[in-house]
Amino acid sequence: MAERHESSDALPTAKLHPRKGEQEEGGDGDEDDDEERKQRLGEFQPGELKSSVSELRQTQLETLTAPSTQEFSENDQFAGLQLESVSQSIDGAELQEQLGLSHQEILASVTNQDILIQKQSQSQLTVCPTPFSELSPTSVTQSISSAPSPILIEQRVPHGKTSASDGYNWRKYGQKQVKSPQGSRSYYRCTYSECYAKKIECCDHSGHVTDIVYKSQHTHDPPRKSICIKENKLALSAECVRYSVVPAEHSCRTVNDSEVSTSSKEPIQETPSVPERKRQSTSDSDDNGDVKIKEENGDGDEPEPKRRMKKSKSEYSASLSKPGKKPKFVVHAAGDVGISATIVHNHDVKMTTHGLSV
DNA sequence: TAGATTTGACCCTGC
DNA sequence: CGCAGGGTCAAATCT
Ligand SMILES: [Zn+2]
């Protein structure tokens, strides 16, 4: 059963059964290996998630302005990026109009390469269009009235390009060669044991970083200067937010993704309902020589339950995978091209907006 | 020696 | 069912 390895003879035998434990789902009690599983499961952190979520609701986070991003600018360009999530237990979808305001602010705040993204989770999102300039009046201000806890995430990318380090320590745990956008993909994970933040760097064939995707938030402060962010607790929200920074043509995308796949049977209306990965590729191909920065936060559920789902499925399916309970936000903000926002709540497509053609 | 990186294999999901 | 793409693991290697 646990032998599915086709290992080449050149292997030092030790490799013969690498992750036996993982695959063993036959039904053994395997308690010893449980630890490993735990770690893997840890990615989802069912328990913690709940806790944090609760806290989130109870705790109101206020958006604070960037203190001194200059410090980070030196080496950590990306450190400047600020992410703030404000979750309010107040169930009021009253911020809707606020969005409009945000839009302007964003435009104002966003200069050249600075992008400010404000997103109100679950029900409202604000996407800042292209800072670069004239971006059509396409301000995606979608607000779905049904989300009790609006989360405000503010992210700022001082230097859109290349973010060698955002102030955290990353450990590379994998690399993949991709064909679509010819290049490679590097997978990084925060070195903090308690932190499940991940980062994916997409490089083109020449080695240029074309895309950076952040997953989850750090559950700790940066090793160095204190960014003075209280992401500590919010970190766990499992929403997926993607930011794409492209000087020439900015495309901001916010994806609150959890696992709508179950009900995602229904294709998104206006948007070219493309699978997650497809989406990425699609957008990636857009830019040449530019770095896109995206951030993904899981929201209570798993963003992309790819690996180790077996275990979790069997044990946590009840609590984790809630079919039909996954709010999904897909916001595409392409400067000139237009903005397309797709919000999927449960299995209902809330809205899709194309900046130029709605 | 420890920690990080490299790299091949493996698993999962979607088509 | 099989394939392709994507993501992760872990042994080997490097620093
Ligand atoms: Zn971290």
From TrEMBL:
Pfam families recorded: WRKY
Family annotation (SMART domains): WRKY (SM00774)
Record's subcellular location: Nucleus
Domain WRKY, residue spans: 165-223
InterPro entries: WRKY_dom, WRKY_dom_sf, WRKY_plant
Source organism superkingdom: Eukaryota
This protein's UniProt keywords: DNA-binding, Nucleus, Transcription, Transcription regulation
Native source species: Pyrus ussuriensis x Pyrus communis
Residue numbers spanned by region Disordered: 1-75, 252-327
Name of the protein: WRKY transcription factor 32
One GO cellular component term: nucleus
GO molecular function, one term: transcription cis-regulatory region binding
Keyword Nucleus (UniProt): yes
Main location: nucleus
SUPFAM superfamilies named among the record's database cross-references: WRKY DNA-binding domain
Biased composition (Polar residues): 51-75, 253-272
Biased composition, class Acidic residues, residue ranges: 24-35
